[in-house]
Amino acid sequence: MPTHHRNRGARGNERADKTATPLTTQQKKTAGPGTQDLAGLQPRRAATKLVEAVLGQGKTLDITLGEHAAVAPFSRMEERDRALARAIAATALRRKGQIDAIFDSFLERPLKGKTVAFYAIARAALAEILFMNAPDHAVVNLAVQQARADKRTRHLAGLLNAVLRKASVNGPGLAAAQDSALINTPDWLWQNWVRAHGEEKARALAEANLQEAALDITVKSDPESWARRLGGEQVGPVTVRLAQRGRIETLDGFEDGQWWVQDAAAALPARLLGNVAGMRVADLCAAPGGKTAQLAWAGARVTALDISASRLARLRDNLERLALNAEIVATDVNEFETENRFDAVLLDAPCSATGTIRRHPDIPHLKRPSDIEKLSEVQARLLNKAVSLTKPGGRLVYCTCSLEPEEGEEQIARITSSGAPVTVERIAGQEAARCSHTATEQGFIRTWPFASPQGSGDAPADGFFIARLSVDARQC
Fold first, then answer.
1. What residues are labeled active site?
2. Measured between alpha carbons, how far is 73 from 456 in angstroms, rounded to an integer?
3. For the chain, which residues make up each domain, given as ranges?
4. pLDDT tens, 274-302?
5. How many CB atoms are closer than 10 A to CB 385?
6. pTM of this prediction?
7. Fold held by 263-471
8. 7-43, pLDDT tens digit by residue?
9. What CATH fold (topology level) applies to the domain 35-179?
């Protein structure tokens, strides 16, 4: 299969994880004149469409899910089947390096021509066979059925059948001998992490990204009680980590607006502004609104700005459910002007999001080094704007959900050395609550998606960089 990885040998004797995902059964439905879907075929077709959209069209997994929600086969599926389709696609993306190497090992020669659709079927099938405890024969049959039904792939159905059957027998052993952390991480990203954080942390990051992230919620009050009610665990002053997944709309407290979905690390930046009750606070690049909700609940008079009107509509809906208020402005932050500066500003800048790969396994396949370079320029402009919007004597928190220094430490080094009227206000390690984190020598916080590097037992969280700045009170 086409891949951006160099040839890598096995390192260690790691066993391929087998995350059990229950398979669905579904009554046969008429798919067209004279044909019937096999049981379970629809979620596999849906998973293949998702994989093809990400790897063939460069679309994000979440956007694709949204676009396909009202389109067959998604629209005809039960919620459980939709969840299965997403799980298969996410596993295929998460384990793409391993899957490609194993599939290719059973090909006598590389395939020629347009094969994106074919490989999407193969990758989805191998994700189930190798990593989801699915019955091999059923998965192979469903994959071959897909290939025969698609004019782009029907001439390769026999080859697919032969290769998948070989992989079902020998694939698990090959997977166990692979260095899963290394082979599933793009070379450029692995080198970035080794250079920035050292090989030990790079490996820990890559291993963490092979697991699905937990679902965290921020509660308005009494997190200990909500943890009991929802069967979760309190992992921060306002954060409850849920043990089970499902439709969040059905959970106790959602309809009443008692909590909202927000990773434990994402809940830190707003808290690091301190007591904001009664203050005018700007939340820049605010959508989808978790930090806006925190600030509003803390008593701030919040102005939430974002360039995306559609994302702000979601923010508005969330605030309405939570019975919270904020001024919402759809604008390019760099063009926003106000006569009165804000007492405090929070900038969660657009970034490569490499700290959220556990949640978004499409990121390694969609991002490139050039994207980080371009985003760094955007962040620099936004940070300068954020300073100009902050009152003298005010506080500014800058954060990104990125693991790349260009989007974190280097941004702060640039602005502090530019003569801008800002000073780094050190963040103490204990302010990171129970997130797995590192308090850096410069006074910043980095959170990690793996167990605490400081051995404190803190919970893994999305990878964030957070810096706190004070704006010089003596400036004119």
1. 401
2. 46
3. 35-179, 263-471
4. 999 999 999 999 999 999 999 999 999 99
5. 18
6. 0.90
7. Rossmann fold (3.40.50)
8. 444 333 333 343 334 444 333 333 333 334 567 999 9
9. N-utilizing Substance Protein B Homolog; Chain A (1.10.940)
